[in-house]
Write a structure and sequence with these properties.
The protein is mainly α. The chain contains seven helices and no strands. It is about 85% helix and about 0% strand. Helix 2 packs antiparallel against helix 3.
Length: about 160
């Protein structure tokens, strides 16, 4: 293989890797509307839990940012909201288990683990945002929109259920 062909092959491979990486990143954060559409299409109640977990994880990340900035009262408010979403998720999971005829046990541990997994993804994104723009959320249209939605749990819950 010629030197030129090797370079073109390498460039094509790098371009492909960039597309895969960008696609993977986008896939990490499907929009709330996309998830709600999945719920509507399949009536999959696990999508509801996933949305509640996403909100809880986002709230916990905002809380962590506020704590680092010394805003403990605001941080506590976001933690409380995260806990509220985790309770909603737990109740949804309990209902899923009930319909399946499965005895629920340690659901809050499962919810906590799921929130933790999503929280890691948010944390990475917030850090990337901060490195790029000096802001964790401002300037990231998707995260800004998600935070607005997640700050109104009853409206969010109703929107999920009636989408």
């Amino acid at each position: 293989m010629s030197q030129r062909m090797k370079k073109l092959t390498l460039l094509a491979l790098l371009a492909h890797m960039c597309l895969v990486f960008n696609g993977a990143r986008a896939a990490e954060f499907k929009s709330f509307d996309d998830i709600r559409a999945q719920y509507q299409s399949y009536r999959d109640p696990t999508r509801v839990s996933y949305l509640f977990n996403r909100c809880a994880a986002l709230q916990l990340n905002v809380s962590a940012v506020l704590r680092r900035q010394g805003e403990n009262k605001g941080a506590q408010d976001f933690e409380n909201l995260a806990h509220h979403y985790m309770v909603l998720s737990e109740a949804n999971e309990r209902e899923i288990d009930k319909k399946r005829g499965v005895k629920s046990k340690d659901l809050m541990k499962t919810v906590s683990r799921n929130v933790s997994n999503v929280s890691e993804i948010y944390s990475k994104r917030l850090m990337e945002n901060f490195k790029k723009r000096g802001e964790y959320i401002v300037g990231d249209a998707q995260l800004e929109a998600e935070l607005v939605e997640c700050n109104l749990p009853e409206v969010f819950k109703n929107k999920v259920m009636t989408y």
